[in-house]
TrEMBL record:
<dbReference type="GO" id="GO:0032259">
    <property type="term" value="P:methylation"/>
</dbReference>
<dbReference type="GO" id="GO:0008757">
    <property type="term" value="F:S-adenosylmethionine-dependent methyltransferase activity"/>
</dbReference>
<dbReference type="Pfam" id="PF08241">
    <property type="entry name" value="Methyltransf_11"/>
</dbReference>
<feature type="domain" description="Methyltransferase type 11">
    <location>
        <begin position="87"/>
        <end position="166"/>
    </location>
</feature>
<keyword id="KW-0808">Transferase</keyword>
<keyword id="KW-0489">Methyltransferase</keyword>
<dbReference type="InterPro" id="IPR013216">
    <property type="entry name" value="Methyltransf_11"/>
</dbReference>
<protein>
    <submittedName>
        <fullName>Methyltransferase family protein</fullName>
    </submittedName>
</protein>
<dbReference type="InterPro" id="IPR029063">
    <property type="entry name" value="SAM-dependent_MTases_sf"/>
</dbReference>
Length: 215
């Protein structure tokens, strides 16, 4: 497996990290999906839409304070960044879209839940499922995944050869969508038949990783 380099944490974690009781079960499902994407089902997609339709009105108010922290750190320290189109997978209400657009002026923001997506400010918003990304092969310079399911085959298909994957979990190892970075790396390697490397760091309550193919 490719190399994982951990950078020093520069943004400390404040007291009062929220606890998500659903995290353990959700993490198990997220790992299962990262390793076996063909298990994704219509019922799972419907459950996601139900859950986030309920959460959409309170998402920014409840979570807006801490969610941008790891991605901000990733975008400051995780580069250099390739040019090109960026695909923000599972953009939600667009809490992070502005940060991404500061790096990649052209961002497609994708989400499965209309109630979330309709609140997002992005210029190009697409209602769709990350298991079938709405872009051509090799057409994107970056794919950003902030607390969303990983469909590694689709990410690899969408990325240009020098493209980057930016991964973040706003509550770190306690996030419902957390997948350990070695598992993310290994899923990308299996999907691409290539070696990848990762740089990673903790930031605030969260963590991030930037993953690239080893040339
Ligand atoms: C935990 S929220 C994260 C939202 C945003 N990235 C943020 O950090 O605030 C997960 C989002 O991913 C979306 N999502 C979950 N599964 C998806 C899928 N298969 N395809 C597209 N979006 C999905 C949900 O609808 C929800 O908006």
């Amino acid at each position: 497996m490719g190399q994982i380099t951990e950078l020093t944490q520069v943004i400390p974690a404040a007291p009062g990290k929220p606890v998500r009781p659903e995290a353990a079960a959700s993490q198990q499902a997220s790992v299962e999906l990262a390793l076996h994407p063909s298990t994704w089902s219509h019922d799972q997609a419907e459950a996601v839409v139900r859950r986030y339709t309920e959460l959409a009105p309170v998402w920014d108010g409840d979570r807006g304070g801490y969610r941008p922290v790891p991605l901000t750190d990733a975008l400051q320290r995780g580069g250099p960044w390739p040019d090109g189109l960026c695909l923000e997978v599972g953009c939600g209400t667009g809490l992070l879209s502005g940060l991404i657009q500061d790096v990649w002026p052209e961002v497609i923001s994708l989400d499965l839940t209309w109630a979330m997506l309709t609140r997002a400010p992005g210029r190009w918003r697409v209602l769709g499922d990350a298991s079938r990304l709405p872009v051509g092969d090799g057409s994107t310079g970056a794919v950003v995944l902030a607390d969303v399911p990983l469909f590694a085959g689709e990410v690899v298909r969408a990325l240009a050869p020098d493209g980057v994957v930016v991964w973040s979990n706003a509550l770190g190892e306690d996030a419902p969508h957390h997948v350990p970075i070695p598992t993310v790396l290994s899923a990308l390697e299996s999907a691409s038949d290539a070696q990848w490397s990762a740089r990673t760091a903790h930031a605030g309550w969260g963590l991030w990783a930037v993953l690239t193919r080893v040339s």
